[in-house]
Amino acid sequence: QVQLVESGGGMVQAGGSLRLSCAASGLVFSIHNVAWYRQAPGKQRELVAGIAVGGSRNYADSVKGRFTISRDNAKNTVYLQMNSLKPEDTGVYYCTLRRWNTYWGQGTQVTVSS
């Protein structure tokens, strides 16, 4: 059974930092593309950052230069380092793994106060 468990969310003031983690089990992590999405209240879920099997990364324009996605295949874990957080970064953050199927974590709440 595939499980993705996110952690690291919380409440932080604007300008602060958080690091999200997503630990995967039940699949071969290294062959999956990984991404972080977020959903703010009343808004659609949006892609925040992705990292491919080969290591190439992509970011939403709104987070470029502030967020960094990374993966540790030995630990079956993907990270999202979030710096210079803004109130508009508030939302539930989800990790996803995709190859033949797409798997979603349960989400972790990030709240940035002004």
Give an account of the 3D structure.
With 114 residues, this protein is mainly β. The chain is 0% helix and 54% strand. It is built from no helices and 11 strands. The N and C termini lie far apart (40 Å).
Give a quick rundown of the structure.
The chain is mainly beta and 114 residues long.
Q: Layout of helices and strands, plus pairs?
A:
Elements: E1 3-7, E2 10-13, E3 18-25, E4 33-39, E5 46-51, E6 57-59, E7 67-72, E8 77-82, E9 91-98, E10 102-104, E11 108-113
Sheet with most strands: 7 strands, mixed
Strand portion: over 45%
Structural class of the helix and strand makeup?
mainly beta
Number of strands: 11
Residue-averaged pLDDT: 97
* Uncertain segments: none
Number of helices: 0
> Helix proportion of residues, in percent?
under 10%
Q: Which shape, going by the Cα principal axes?
A: globular
Gyration radius from CA atoms, angstroms: 13 Å
Separation of termini? 40 Å
Order of helices and strands: EEEEEEEEEEE
Supply database-style keywords.
single chain; 114 residues; mainly beta; 7-stranded mixed sheet; 4-stranded antiparallel sheet; 11 strands
